[in-house]
Amino acid sequence: MITLHKAAAGALTALLVPLGLIGPASAASAAPAQTAPTVQSAQNEPRCDVRPRGVTVGAKAQVRTFDVPSARTWSFELPGLALPLSDTSPEATFTMKGLTNADAAWYTFPVARTRADGTADTCIGSFALKRATRVQHIKVTKIKYGRKITGDLQQIVWGKKPAARWTSFSKQPIDIEFKNTAGHWVTGGRVETKKGKFVFTKQIGKRDWRLWYQGDGEHGSAGYYEFTG
């Protein structure tokens, strides 16, 4: 297992590789002709699936095991992270240490791989680094002819001390569902957060509810929250 840390300041952007600028491997590093696999041209490199396709980084460290399903052997380095990953060393631990909010983004990078038929080539992988979100203080209140649901959507602030690590997240959609009398989840509605807070009302009796925030390009999903009221 390896622990990934952000490289020196500015390196996260500096290591991004534009798709059109990735060249073929140096001929000096090629294996002898009698043992070398067939090498595909590095021009117009194909896309390849790298899994997981991203990670949402919160306050706790988390371990991820990587894979490139199209390859028998593979290796790459995630942009801005100091240690490489490969089929023989696929695990990495992600923490918020050294990250800033500006580092949350989608990245592309070259992957060296050998396919099942022995063909070696370079493909382009992608990976999302996202900030964690959460919903707090969910409350169901009985009102005249219905129910009112309130709560707070928060986003993590990378690089802050615990007391200032979470902040309100405004102008974001919260989706709400409830179980009908047949026991099926149906759409209740969608509300937008204002200064992180949301209020949803509906003319309905006591129900099982669930809500979630689906995330965006820089923020991970807050997951499902289920409750009754």
Proportion of helical residues: under 10%
Which residue ranges are poorly predicted, with pLDDT under 50 across at least 5 consecutive positions? 1-42
Radius of gyration: 23 Å
Strand order of the largest sheet: 2-8-7-4-5
Strand-pairing-aware structural class = mainly beta
Major sheet attributes? 5 strands, mixed
Number of domains: 2
Mean pLDDT value? 84
Oligomer: single chain
- End-to-end separation in angstroms reads 45 Å
Q: How many strands in all?
A: 16
Order of helices and strands: EHEEEEEEEEEEEEEEE
Task: Explain what you see.
β7 and β8 form a beta hairpin. With 229 residues, the chain is mainly beta. The N terminus is likely disordered. It has two domains: 128 residues, no CATH class; 96 residues, SOR catalytic domain (Immunoglobulin-like, Sandwich). Strands 2-8-7-4-5 form a five-stranded mixed sheet, with no helix packed on it.
List the helices and strands and how they pair.
Blueprint: E1 2-4, H1 11-14, E2 54-57, E3 62-65, E4 73-76, E5 85-86, E6 91-94, E7 105-114, E8 120-131, E9 133-143, E10 146-156, E11 166-168, E12 173-179, E13 185-192, E14 197-202, E15 208-213, E16 223-228
Parallel strand pairs: 1-6, 2-8
Antiparallel strand pairs: 3-6, 4-5, 4-7, 7-8, 9-10, 10-11, 10-14, 12-13, 12-15, 15-16
Q: What are the key terms here?
A:
229 residues, mainly beta, Immunoglobulin-like, 2 domains, five-stranded mixed β-sheet, four-stranded antiparallel β-sheet, 1 helix, 16 strands, 2% helix, elongated
